[in-house]
Amino acid sequence: MALRYLGQTLAQQIDVELMSPTAGCFSIDQLMELAGFSVAQAITKVYSKEKFPRVLICVGNNGGDGLVCARHLHHFGYQPSIFYPKQPNKLLYQNLTNQLRNLDVSMVNNLNDQLTKSDLIVDGIFGFSFSGGIRAPFDEVIKTLKSSTLPIVSIDIPSGWNVEQGNIDNVGLEPEMLVSLTAPKIAAKFFKGKHHFLGGRFIPPSFAKKYELNLPEYPGSDQCVRLPN
């Protein structure tokens, strides 16, 4: 059976249910940790630390997964830096950023300057809850990233895309790699990049059956699996 692609409403419903007793009582911290780890591992499958050591992670409203990804990339031997122009006043995100500071991961303010010192971009700006127009400061951030020639890895949804219709106004990013989480979103059908992975190896079989997700088998101990384009 074909892998199921999720619309925005169903994706949000699944996220809520994963944190309920019926699906295992995951905490949001756990889901972010597992998701971010899977993204970091997927990056290692395509972009080696020898050729792409300097990774710029751009963080926005969907920042938790990106911050976790940065921590794991550091432990994998990469040199991550974080561009985080709008940091929420929430303990969860403060803890994630403090973990990075304790590893001496750079928090940068000048995006244009940092792009000249990077080999790879990770797009952790918007997630599947994004809707409407791109608001400041991320409108300028995305314009700047679009003008870069560096390869981009987007987490779950390329930032600026409609979750179900894709890059309808051509204002969103066009990543070289997409790492879908839990299950691909409908917008992933419009992805034209080279590499598509699925991450988030935490779905109970009964839960996957209930929603007819038809998830692929993860190889060995991997936390990500390559999907056909």
UniProtKB/TrEMBL annotation:
Top-rank taxon: Eukaryota
Keywords: Isomerase, Metal-binding, NAD, NADP, Nucleotide-binding, Potassium
Enzymatic reactions: (6R)-NADHX = (6S)-NADHX; (6R)-NADPHX = (6S)-NADPHX
A UniProt-annotated Pfam family: YjeF_N
Keyword Transferase applies: no
Record EC number: 5.1.99.6
GO molecular function: metal ion binding; NAD(P)HX epimerase activity; nucleotide binding
PANTHER family per the UniProt record, alphabetical: NAD(P)H-HYDRATE EPIMERASE
Protein name, UniProt field: NAD(P)H-hydrate epimerase
Organism for this UniProt entry: Piromyces finnis
